[in-house]
Amino acid sequence: MNIELISTIQGHEQQLTALLIDCVNSGASVGFHAPLTQSDAGCYWYKVDKGLQAGERLLVVTFIGDKLVGAIQLSLCLKANGLHRAEVEKLMVHTQYRQHGIAKQLLAAVEDIALGYQRTLLVLDTRTGDAASGLYRKQGYIEVGKIPQFVTNSNGKFESTTIFYKQLSIPVSS
Length: 174
Prior knowledge:
Elements: E1 2-6, H1 13-25, H2 38-54, E2 57-64, E3 67-76, E4 85-93, H3 102-116, E5 121-127, H4 131-138, E6 142-152, E7 158-167
Parallel strand pairs: 4-5
Antiparallel strand pairs: 1-2, 2-3, 3-4, 5-7, 6-7
Helix pairs in contact: 1-2
Protein name: GNAT family N-acetyltransferase
Keywords: Acyltransferase, Transferase
GO molecular function: acyltransferase activity, transferring groups other than amino-acyl groups
């Protein structure tokens, strides 16, 4: 397994699109309704790439061999009073590769990268009750609370989201 910070989606568009479709169509709440089309997924990754190029966003991916099996993003706050924080977004692992610690490793990698960008406060939200909530808690994220009726599911029903944060410490050089 190889985890990489990539600066562009070029060369990875098809695999990123397949990953997003797999996750959404298997029930992940990452901003889309199932069934997700190739076109909509491709447009999404094009927008992500624009954010990468603008320096607003970072994309970390996991490869097993040459297959892209996971991804996570870090949206950097660029406000003058928020340069210490970032939002963790779109933690995704292909359904065929779940339960192997990939999500945990992606989360750890994005935390290390955040520190490299002097980001010591990470925030994220996830649909209330999702399996990812347990992972976030185990990795030291603190639940702030829930917001009702935050998203709609593929059936059009409202669901709440749970907000988490984690404070990171910059290692002191000896």
